[in-house]
Amino acid sequence: MTTQPTPRPGPFARMSETFRPIFQQIAIWTRPLTNLIDDVVNRLFRMRYVGGLIRLALVIGFGLVGWLLLAINIHPYAHWRHLLPTLLPGMNPYIFVLSFFWTILRNTLLAWDVLTYVILGLLPFFAAIEFAAVYLDDIYGLNDIQTARRFIWQAAFSVPDYDILHIENGEVRPEDRRLPVFRIGGPGYVQVGLENASVFERMDGFVNIIGPTTQGILRTERLEGFERLRGVIDLRDQTATPDVVGRTRDGIPVTVRNIRMLYSVIRPGDQTPTLNRPYPFTNASIRTLVYDQNRDTITGAMNSLVMVAFRTFLGTRLLSEVLAAITANDVDRLRGLTTSDGLIGATVWAPNRVPRPDVAERNFYDPNETNGFFAPFIERAARDGVQLNWIDVGTWHIPNTILSAQYLDALQVTMQNQGRNNLYALRDTTFSSWADQIQLMLRQMPLDLVQLQQVRRLRPSELTEDDMVYQLVKQIQKQIRNGRDQFREIGREEPDEIQQALRYLQQYEVDYARARGGRTIGA
After folding, report:
1. What are phi and psi of 345, to 5 degrees?
2. Most distant CA pair in the chain, distance
3. Mean pLDDT for each 10-residue chunk of the chain (523 residues)?
């Protein structure tokens, strides 16, 4: 077995090993200087307003210095010294000074050969800006070179001043939608109204959630370079009226119409509304709505939740289970306040609602119970960053061609039986019947009065107009007394209006007798 000889290091390797400690020590000594240079360069080229002005000053300064050096190199002082004017006796000093400086500029900085080099130097500068604007317009699909050019000048030299993006009423102001800060991103400023929260995203993926801007003179927040708007959320209470179409477990289509909701972004209980922050919110809920839901409004998230909740409810129940629920409106319908038009019913739910005692005790599904239908709905809404404050589940419609007449008759009988077993509905229905009877009695035309009208037409001399009015008053007095007797029979006290009407009619009867020469007892 033979062994290979170990190769000897060359002279360059031996030199490197010899000077490595020296290089390491030099690196340690120069580290503060390199850090300082890096910090200066970063601050100089950072997309900030002050940095842009410094870059603009440096470009103008170096340009002027280069222009001056170029003029001195092409036209030395000895070439145009003899062209300077001489101050003669009696010459106006102001004219002399102007002539002196104009001679210097004309023969140095403004000479044609010098201006030719200056123009040739400026052309690449402006061409580079134009090429950058074209490239930016193509990358972002702006189809607007002017907007891209404005962004280049603002980002590089802070000229013109940074634009302000205004966010109000849950959206960006229409006239701001063409600004570079909206179409491309920062640098710039954003002003967010009290009723909004905005989400901006930086190039490194950092999410910047900006609420109402109330600090500073301009009430704005600064945006970093290429920091773009991702979404805007309206923090105020929102309303929506969606319609949902679903099928029951036995395949019958049901349409839920006129759903009304009141909802908002989740508002934490540990935050108190203030003048600068009237609508409290959490960054987590805003982030969830913008990123997880991929929507810039909470209306889309809430409508999606409502559709899923109602379709899940209908898909897990038979039609008979859906129609079994009788609500307060159903009780009112049994009292004759509404008519049957194919509506199944409606109910209102709110977290702080107190259920009516007449519909609380039931052995079937209660849509007013929060631990039933709305429990998973509210839980999922909280995960999606929204909260439900109030909801009216609207009216439920079923096609008339699907349900047979026998089924509808059986359903109507069932609902009537359930309503009649309710003491509140029975008592109210009884009182309504008595009131309808009294109104019918008051509206009926007395037969005697019809006969008197016929006598009046045939023999007007036997029956005057006053006699007709007196007979009409007697009939009305009779009807009112019958109504008073009806109230007393059911054990209820007659209204004060009936007593007042009877006293008035009795006084009229007395006045009528006196006008005919009669006398009353005590007169």
Report:
1. 150, 175
2. 163
3. 57 62 73 78 80 90 93 86 75 83 87 91 93 93 92 92 92 93 93 93 91 86 92 88 86 85 85 88 88 69 82 82 57 43 41 41 42 68 82 78 64 65 63 66 56 64 70 79 80 81 83 69 44
Rounded to an integer, what distance in angstroms lies between the CA atom of residue 242 and that of residue 336?
Answer: 29
DSSP-based three-state secondary structure for 210: strand
Sheet of 253-257, strand order: 244-247, 253-257, 395-397
| Nearest C-alpha neighbor of 350 from the set 365, 364, 367 | 367
Question: What residues does 17 pair with on adjacent strands?
Answer: none
* Tokens read off for 372: 């039933």
**Cα–Cα dist 5/3, whole Å:** 6
Strand partners, 167: 172, 192
Contact (CB, 8 A) for 302 and 263: yes
CA–CA separation, 393 vs 516, rounded Å?
68
CA distance 79 to 344: 105
Closest by Cα among 170, 171, 154 to 162? 154
SS3 track for 370-421: CCCCHHHHHHHHHHCCEEEEEEECCEEECCCCCCCHHHHHHHHHHHHHHHHC
Q: Where are the alpha helices (DSSP H) in 261-370?
A: 283-287, 298-315, 319-322, 328-334
Q: Return the residue matching tokens 């909740």.
A: 309
Using DSSP bridges, classify how beta strands 171-172 and 207-210 pair: parallel, antiparallel or unpaired: unpaired
CA–CA gap between residue 73 and residue 199 (Å, rounded)? 56
- Token readout for 305 is 């939740």
Strand partners of residue 500: none
Q: Report which DSSP code applies to 80.
A: H
At 345 the pLDDT is: 42
d(CA 214, CA 276): 6
Q: Spell out the alpha helix ranges (H) of 46-92.
A: 49-74, 77-80
Q: How many helices (H) and strands (E) does the chain have?
A: 17, 14
Provide the 10 A C-beta neighbour count for residue 6: 6
Cα–Cα distance for residue pair 24/432, rounded to 1 Å = 104
